[in-house]
Amino acid sequence: MHILKIIHGYPPNYNAGSEVYSQSIVNELIKTHKVTVFTREENDYVPDFSFRYETENGIDFVFVNMARAKDGYNHPILNDQFRTLISEIKPDVAHIGHLNHLSTGIVDVLHEANIPMVYTLHDFWLMCPRGQFLQRNFDGKTLYKLCESQENTKCATNCYSMYFSRNRREFDSAIYYTHGLTPETDSSDDLQNWTSWIRNRMLHIKQICEKIDLFIAPSKYLMNRFTNDFKLPENKIIYLDYGFPTQYLRPVKPKTNGFYTFGYIGTHIPAKGINLLIEAFKLVQGKTNLKIFGREQGQNTKALKEMTQTSKNEIEFCGEYINHNLATTVFNYVNCIVVPSIWTENSPLVIHEAQACKIPVITADVGGMAEYVAHNSNGLLFKHRDLKSLAEQMQWAFDNDNEMKKFGNRGYLFSESGEVPNIEEHCNELEKIYKKLRRNEK
């Protein structure tokens, strides 16, 4: 079978969860199938939408350059070139992971060619223009305020008004007066234009969702959000947790030199809540330290490092890691992992990876985070976005090391052995899905 894997980034250029998961299934599927990966790169020195071809370890890669156009959602030029690509490579099935920074018109092209499509949901991007239901505008009180639902005018006002030619919101006026400035008049044209843009975007998304054969949700929480809030038909979505290359995710015995070591693994973007973790760690009493793993990201990382200067205990930025060395270079050196995300993560890979290595997890009491970590069973839960609550749970972990080890040994909740789903079994399930969709198309 020829499988086309579509994802908006691929390691080593992009190393977030959806990209790492995509790499894991591609590396497994290539053992018995032909696989082509269609993904993006950002090269400022070549034109946007240029295609580049590469083959590595038997995998064919097609990179589309999206250096300047990445923030759009549907690009006719890319769609036309993708149509030519499909006529040349003739895949049997397409497995989409994300279309952000690519083009939603890819779905139209595949539908025209009668190629069955599976879409793994990694976040809320189909139902939220910004993907995480975090509001971008600052109201003077709460950075990245949580949003409960998508509504066109609300989206324009709360996430896109920084593009308005004048400022229109009441709380923006309050900020202006605070700084001794005079707010400008209402910008109703800008509001109408952005509301229309979002309305058109959401109508288009609904149309392409109708053309996708099956959606896979890696958590029941995410599946329920898409069926209840987005009204995705229940017969078009299934729950299937991620699979993991367990050959390199083995139980470890942490070497922490007498310190209780908390760890963070992931990107340094605001949605991940690293600032919350740093401030909570400062409140923990005892012989502790904190290791932050992940690729450094310019001013974000610089700002986080500045926050650490008032910590009485060491906070170390350990840089990027290679995924197949997670056990030996990361989990070997921490007593527990903290996942402090301020958005409602759906099924964090790092939680599963820690559980595979028998490392306990502290995370928030919402979304897929709370689905895969049960309080006082295989980890600890804190009140979402609550600094004091996180600090209390971290202090409890320090004070109760033996209990935390028991939580770590419990591992994954949904298997008797505590083992996370392995990549071989997971890809076997994917193969069954692909074959069923192909039969249905015929």
Task: Give a description of the structure.
The chain has two domains: 2-129 and 199-243 and 422-441, Glycogen Phosphorylase B (Rossmann fold, 3-Layer(aba) Sandwich), CATH 3.40.50.2000; 260-410, Glycogen Phosphorylase B (Rossmann fold). The strands form two sheets. The chain has an eight-stranded mixed beta sheet, sandwiched between helices. Strands 11-10-9-12-13-14 form a six-stranded parallel beta sheet, sandwiched between helices. Helix 9 links the parallel strand 10 (288-293) and strand 11 (315-319). The radius of gyration is 23 Å and the shape is globular. The chain contains 15 helices and 14 strands. It starts with a strand and ends with a helix. The chain has 442 residues and is of the alpha/beta class. Helix 2 packs parallel to helix 3. It has helices at residues 17-29, 76-89, 105-112, 152-159, 170-178, 188-211, 220-228, 274-282, 298-307, 326-329, 349-356, 367-372, 387-399, 401-410, 423-441; strands at 2-6, 34-41, 51-56, 59-65, 93-96, 117-120, 214-217, 237-239, 260-265, 288-293, 315-319, 336-339, 361-364, 379-382.
SSE inventory with pairings:
Layout: E1 2-6, H1 17-29, E2 34-41, E3 51-56, E4 59-65, H2 76-89, E5 93-96, H3 105-112, E6 117-120, H4 152-159, H5 170-178, H6 188-211, E7 214-217, H7 220-228, E8 237-239, E9 260-265, H8 274-282, E10 288-293, H9 298-307, E11 315-319, H10 326-329, E12 336-339, H11 349-356, E13 361-364, H12 367-372, E14 379-382, H13 387-399, H14 401-410, H15 423-441
Parallel strand pairs: 1-2, 1-5, 2-4, 5-6, 6-7, 7-8, 9-10, 9-12, 10-11, 12-13, 13-14
Antiparallel strand pairs: 3-4
